[in-house]
Sequence to fold (483 residues):
Amino acid sequence: MATVAFEGLAIGGQRIASADGKTAPVYEPATGEILAQVAQATAADVDKAVKTAHARFSDGKWKQMRTRERGQILQRIANLIREKAEMLAQIESKNGGKPISAARGEIGAVANTFEYYAGAVNKIHGQTIPGNANGTLMTFREALGVCALIVPWNFPLVIAGWKIAPALAMGNTVIVKPASVTPLSALALADLALEAGLPEGAFNVITGSGSVAGKALVTHPLVRKISFTGSTEVGVGVMQQAAGSIKRVSLELGGKSANIIFGDANLDTCIESSLFSVYDNAGQDCCSRSRFLVERPIFDEFVERFVNRTKTMKVGNPADEQTEMGPLITPQHRESVINYMNIGDGEGAKRLCGGEIPGGDLAEGNYLTPAVYVNVNSGMRIMQEEIFGPVVCIMPFDGETEAIQFANDSAYGLSGSLWTRDIGRALRVARAVETGMLSVNSSSSVHIEAPFGGMKESGLGREQGMTALEHYSEYKSVFIAND
Ligand code: NAP
Ligand code: MG
Fold:
């Protein structure tokens, strides 16, 4: 048997074992094989990482570096990500079960994120404000201190990048807590950041469980900010625990986004795009449009064409260039998706295709074929709860008002799409849907230049764009009297 690599915690520029030497395996979802043994941080390791990050913040080596130089280091990280893109894409594809073509796209996006914030470093600043003639009133934008960045498994490096880059750009130091099942790419990025010249201890990675390492970060008195992406359930607990020391909190949580398709939509484009809007990353996407609302006159035609195309989706090994959908992240997660399908069956919904476990070459992986449900209504659990798998519910609507009402009949409000060629209607519906992001005649929610985040129970705060920088800094007002 091949020896499995050991991956240590990344603290202060070193890769080290945890205090008690504990490790846990991480697996390849396509085969069930062990990819690496990863250190499991204890509360003592978290304390060490936080104190290291705090010391680096306080000594000013990063925070007080000339902003132009800080930007250059972030740009060098972007360049190194591009240089090592294939290595990083292989990690993301193997560990996350992502089709290699998709993983390559994600790594490109991570480089773009660092590049965007490299350019932003010296373009965010305070103001002088007209106030009292007897003095000068001004504001400064101050870094917060140690930021704890808690990341889920579905887009491990993309989401880590959305947090690390703006946090570092503002002069903070960071501790990343990747998901237990996908820690490898964040560790590789920490190595690249050192190579790019980032001062040791400015970017640390703590691997280990949410209940031990995550909790220790959230409750540590020297952590000033928590940026959490994950489930709404865990997010609620993070917010409650952070309240104890008034930590700044941003939350990017779950979704149950609507894909609203009007009768005048260009169905050829819409069907192809909608397929990926729900099955991308095997449906394990917070922005997944898992509720399709289709105007009644085209409902039957849309469903027939969508089901036919769903049946041709290439589910297979992520390493294969032709694969459109890889396995789900873990056997347990596949169980939970199947359980939701059983709930849907019990609620009277009708499955038109998919939801099967493939055999043959794919039998060892956590594969599941994409499933389409009709005969659904807003009262059903499969229409309200985030399934986080390749399962879509399609429901008819009559007219604009009903479309908006159905779209908003959700505790979530993260993303969504709208298909129509009527510009007036596009604007009216886009304004009325309670969601943080909406794309018209498109399924793309992610633009590094624009704010990303949710309304209602989908979250608090925004990532990406210049807006993200506000969540990693605060204002200080200074008044200087004329003497
Ligand atoms: P999760 O179970 O909530 O975990 C997210 C992260 O929190 C993981 O690193 C996890 O560590 C950690 N964690 C767990 N318990 C914790 C605790 N008590 N204190 C501190 N940290 C803790 O979410 P997931 O299963 O990884 O990801 C799926 C969810 O993320 C979905 O609901 C999805 O919608 C959401 N998501 C949202 C966005 C967005 O931008 N809105 C993007 C992607 C995903 P462990 O891995 O060790 O449990
Ligand atoms: Mg989880």
